[in-house]
Design brief:
single chain, globular
């Protein structure tokens, strides 16, 4: 079974306020068995536009990624205005 990945592009406008969401998001990731591969860091866009934070999380299956995605969606209110733009996808590996 191929692994799956959640890839998120996030516009963080209030890093301090975003910390509350991050604490809860770590629990969601750990419960779903996710491995954090990318979180923040320098971004060099080749084409298109991206927000100021990119996150990539690896999961053992698409089902585990879906479980985590549901948990992140449930935390949407926690992000509030600290990250007004949040785009994410689940991508199945090869």
């Amino acid at each position: 079974m191929p692994k799956a990945y959640i890839v998120a592009s996030i516009n963080v406008t209030d890093p301090d306020g975003f910390q509350e969401y991050l604490k809860a998001a770590v629990k969601v990731r750990e419960e779903a068995g996710g491995t954090l591969l990318v979180s923040g860091g320098r971004i060099e866009a080749i084409e298109g536009s991206f927000h100021n934070r990119i996150v990539v999380i690896e999961f053992e299956s698409i089902e585990a990624a879906r479980e985590a995605a549901a948990g992140y969606t449930a935390l949407r209110h926690t992000r509030g205005n600290s990250a007004p733009d949040y785009d994410s996808v689940i991508v199945e590996g090869v």
